[in-house]
Design goal:
The structure holds two protein chains of two kinds.
Chain A lengths: L3 H21 L12 E4 L5 E6 L5 E8 L13 H8 L9 H10 L3 E6 L4 E8 L3 H13 L5 H18 L3 H14 L12 H6 L2 H11 L5 E7 L3 H12 L23 E6 L4 E9 L8 H13 L5 H9 L6 E5 L7 E9 L3 H18 L3 H13 L8 H13 L6 H10 L3 H11 L6 E6 L1 H6 L2
Parallel strand pairs in A: 2-6, 7-11
Antiparallel strand pairs in A: 1-2, 3-5, 3-6, 4-5, 8-10, 8-11, 9-10
Chain B lengths: L1 H9 L1 H6 L6 E4 L5 E6 L5 E8 L13 H8 L11 H8 L3 E6 L4 E8 L3 H13 L5 H20 L2 H13 L13 H6 L2 H11 L5 E7 L3 H12 L22 E8 L4 E7 L8 H12 L5 H9 L3 E6 L10 E8 L5 H17 L4 H17 L4 H15 L7 H6 L3 H11 L5 E9 L4
Parallel strand pairs in B: 2-6, 7-11
Antiparallel strand pairs in B: 1-2, 3-5, 3-6, 4-5, 8-10, 8-11, 9-10
Classes of the chains: A alpha+beta, B alpha+beta.
Chain lengths: 452, 436
């Protein structure tokens, strides 16, 4: 609301002075080639290779169908613990030996679990690729899950969960997820809880490993200085005999729907800033409205300084350094959330502004200019998602996992360009619920309450 | 260029390790330094403009000025309205941002390579065309205060790092936090910003770096076109402060709501301008380069004293800085035990020569890291710019040869010379009970 006249005039002057260069710029063209070459080995293991020979380095990502979605509630943290233990010792190598071997070739090797999947990542020099592959394959096929290593990791995770309580943003997120998803796996930390991690037995870890780490539930993405047929031969030699799995595994399906009401949870802490999370359930990754929502959310709060939330709450009000909104789609409905931090005293007014923006985009939609700007960013910035090996491996892996198709780079442009103002209005009305959200405020409540 | 391409095909490792050999340096008459590095592996380009100004150039009472000015660089010029900078970049598929450190303030735009001229146009415009509107400045101060609350006030480890720096340096401005003290930010005025801007945002105090998919001979005339008309100004004043030698350990505690104690130990060390910098860098890898490094292996893995622990050498710094060690104390353990264990690892380097394989491991990690770091054009530009500002970009060329020459005896010598209790500041976070 400040100085509308002044800023409008400035915009006009800008348009005159810079219009020439802006007019000269043509849309960015994205390469039409597939993101990677795909091949399925005899045992069901899928291999995706993208050769990029500019630097003598290689990135390998093993993606496994198995995350917290496949956990029992009383064993929350099992997927994460299993993944972390892969690099903590094998049949023939101790954890310390693995660490030393990785460091000696200047490589990095890590493993982790998410909600929907688990991953093992290797970055290695081209000249050390055989050694790096040997280490990845050993951790993948022969993890020891030695009792002492399990105890060590459990103790570490419990301490980490405790330390996380120091971070008011993390506390707010944890409370929010719990209220939005209840007992569904999306509602709890990947690490699980102190009590559930402590209850996990070695047999359960071995069982989770046996059920999920199988060739038909895994695929390998290779990006970097490799020859496709050569790397395929190497991987076939190492993993061709990986036996298929036997078990059929069950996972949690959709989370229970929230009631259409406003739930407010306040957590009292001696902090100078209120940490606020506001939102509800969102969509699955396979929802065809994903692209319209991507554009809508860019305009609402995903587009940094181009977004309405930043414009209103940071630029106009000066209430926050960081405010954003996002959808987190997964195999199941992830969350939609707005996150911001503001001094305790402005917590109340900031929440009101957020809700007002949710209502406004639902009622009035977006302008032609906003739509055009959002599309030109989302399509024009696609090359920036492909400019390093690590980014490429990450994108190829999610394209494969969520079945987006290896022509995704091209289809993405078409899908984004096809979004209309009507689509945005429709998805805003369908998926934003300013009458039924969860609001979590971690703050010095005595100060935050003064302003309400 | 033809011979270079041939070399790439014949011996990629060799040529790519010498990325610095492909940097093209030039300067405009107004003193603007230009560093260009062509990287054609992806159709993207990153444009950086870095100014030689940061917390190091600030005075007590107006700390945080460089950082606030960084924020103001997005708040409008005579040609472009407040907040429009990032909108224009994004509309063109680009990402932009900025950062402030003790030694520099950097701005960048990364996008598809055909947009490069837009960045030149916009950066040239805001080098001298900033409005510094008083109302905008007042509003932005509040944003920065929120940033400080987020990053420091409610973040126990950052708060501890801040007070350690303030105790370790008594004379040199490295004692001041980059974001500024809260009471200083609150009082910063438009006149402070204008003075700072006019003193430091001049072409002869700036470096322009472009890395990515472009042709240097086509880009240089465009750079000249956009920046050439900006007049040279007086050279900014030199920072004269020199931190005197520390003679005796300093200790402090910070009490804050937290779950676990935390320990920082900062040792005064020379920077990359001193020949011992390579041995100190190697020492950082021996002690803290990965899970097989000594501190992780001992404190985190074997003894389970720390949730995480390590050390890092502030090597790329205009003036001599610190070698900080840190550890997050595990429940049931004490800060004293952890401090002793950290110190024991430092003493071990002094007393026993590092075995050959361990020395080779650290060198391999550094060589590999040097190559991995070239995968991103943004990172290449950042490194070039940082080296240029702290010591001249050619100091980057000296890095790998310097590392290769380090011996076990060098490690022992520098550990004994610099990592002594008399040269350190120990800061301990004492958790106060949290509200539940």
């Amino acid at each position: 609301m400040r100085r509308v006249m002044t800023s409008a005039r400035r915009r006009y002057r800008w348009a005159l002075s810079f219009s020439l260069s802006l007019l000269l710029l043509q849309p960015v063209l994205v390469a039409a080639a597939p993101l990677a070459e795909r091949q399925v080995l005899e045992n069901g293991l899928t291999l995706l290779v993208r050769s990029s020979r500019a630097l003598p380095i290689v990135t390998i990502k093993v993606t496994v169908q198995g995350g917290s979605l496949w956990e029992q509630e009383g064993r929350a943290g099992l997927a994460n613990l299993t993944a972390l233990l892969l690099t903590r010792g094998t049949a023939t190598r101790t954890a310390a030996q693995i660490d030393e071997s990785v460091d000696f070739i200047g490589a990095s090797l890590s493993s982790s679990a998410g909600r929907d999947l688990s991953e093992v990542d290797l970055t290695v020099l081209r000249k050390d690729l055989p050694k790096g592959l040997e280490l990845v394959v050993d951790t993948l096929l022969h993890p020891a899950f030695e009792q002492g290593e399990i105890a060590r990791k459990v103790q570490e995770l419990r301490a980490a969960l405790r330390k996380r309580q120091e971070d008011p943003g993390e506390v707010a997120q944890e409370v929010f997820d719990d209220l939005v998803f209840g007992s569904h796996p999306y509602g709890r930390p990947l690490e699980g809880r102190e009590t559930t991690i402590a209850a996990i037995t070695r047999d359960e870890i071995v069982g989770f490993y046996r059920d999920h780490y199988t060739p038909e539930r895994a695929f390998i993405t290779v990006v970097g200085d490799v020859d496709r047929s050569e790397i395929t031969g190497q991987i076939r030699a190492l993993l061709g005999s990986w036996p298929k799995g036997k078990a059929t595994v069950k996972r949690a399906t959709e989370p229970a729907l929230l009631q259409e009401k406003i739930v407010v949870k306040k957590v009292d802490r001696s902090v100078t800033q209120a940490n606020i999370v506001l939102g509800h359930q969102g969509i699955r990754r396979d929802n065809p409205d994903f692209y319209a929502l991507t554009v809508m959310n860019y305009i609402l709060g995903g587009g940094g300084f181009s977004s309405r939330l930043v414009e209103r709450i940071r630029e106009q009000k000066g209430w926050a350094y960081d405010v954003s909104s996002q959808f987190s789609p997964g195999l199941e409905r992830g969350s939609f959330q707005v996150v911001l931090q503001t001094k305790n005293e402005t917590a109340g007014p900031a929440v009101q502004e957020v809700v007002r923006e949710l209502r406004r985009i639902r009622e009035q939609g977006v302008t032609d200019q906003e739509l055009a700007d959002a599309k030109s960013y989302l399509t024009g910035s696609f090359p920036l998602r492909l400019d390093t090996n690590a980014k490429l491996a990450g994108l190829i892996s999610s394209v494969e996992y969520y079945k987006l198709g290896l022509d995704y780079a091209d289809r993405y442009r078409t899908l984004i360009d096809g979004v209309s103002k009507e689509d945005i209005l429709r998805v805003a009305r369908t998926y934003l619920r300013p009458e039924g959200y969860v609001l979590v405020v971690v703050a010095d409540q005595a100060k935050a309450a003064l302003s309400e | 260029m033809a011979w270079l391409i041939l070399c790439v095909i014949l011996a990629p490792g060799l040529v790519d390790a010498q990325v610095t050999a492909r940097v093209k340096e030039s300067a405009l008459e107004n003193g603007l330094k230009i560093l260009l590095l062509e990287e054609h592996k992806a159709p993207v380009v990153t444009v950086h403009v870095w100014y030689r100004v940061g917390a190091r150039n600030e005075q007590p009472g107006t700390t945080g000025l460089s950082h606030l000015l960084e924020h103001m660089m997005f708040k409008g010029t005579s040609k472009l309205g407040p907040g429009q900078f990032s909108r224009v970049i994004r509309r063109n598929g680009g990402r932009d941002n900025a950062f402030t450190s003790e030694d520099y303030t950097g701005y960048f735009e990364t996008f598809a390579s055909d947009r490069v001229e837009l960045a030149l146009e916009l950066e040239a415009d805001r080098m001298r065309g900033l409005l510094l509107d008083a109302k905008e400045a007042e509003a932005e101060k509040h944003v920065v205060m929120e940033e400080r609350r987020l990053r420091t006030e409610d973040e126990p480890i950052s708060a501890l790092r801040e007070v350690m720096g303030a105790a370790a340096f008594q004379v040199h401005p490295y004692r001041q936090p980059v974001i500024g003290w809260m009471s200083d930010i609150e009082k910063l005025a438009r006149e402070d910003l204008v003075r700072h801007y006019n003193t430091y945002y001049v072409p002869n105090n700036a470096v322009l770096i472009v890395v990515g998919d472009f042709k240097s001979d086509e880009l240089l005339p465009k750079i000249r076109h956009h920046f050439g008309a900006i007049p040279r100004a007086a050279d900014p004043p030199a920072v004269r402060a020199i931190e005197p030698e520390q003679r005796g350990e300093r200790r402090l505690v910070l009490k804050k709501e937290a779950e676990l104690p935390f320990v920082f130990m900062g040792y005064h060390v020379p920077n990359l301008k001193h020949p011992d910098n390579f041995a100190l860098e190697m020492l950082a890898y021996i002690l803290s380069g990965g899970k097989s490094a000594r501190i992780y292996k001992s404190l985190v893995y074997e003894k389970q004293l720390a949730l995480f622990a390590g050390g890092g050498y502030d090597r790329e710094s205009i003036d001599p800085n610190l070698f900080p060690f840190y550890a997050s104390v595990m429940p049931g353990k004490t800060a004293e035990e952890v401090e002793q264990a950290l110190t024991a690892e430092i003493e071990r380097v002094k007393n026993e020569p590092v075995p050959d394989r361990e020395l080779q491991k650290a060198k391999n990690q550094i060589e590999a890291g040097f190559l991995f770091g070239q995968d991103s054009v943004f990172n290449l530009a950042r490194q070039l710019a940082e080296y240029e500002i702290v010591a001249g970009w050619r100091a980057w060329e000296a890095y790998l040869p310097g590392i290769r020459a380090v011996t076990a005896a060098d490690l022992q010598r520098v550990a004994r010379a610099y990592l002594t209790p008399d040269h350190r500041t120990v800061a301990v976070l004492i958790p106060e009970k949290m509200k539940k």
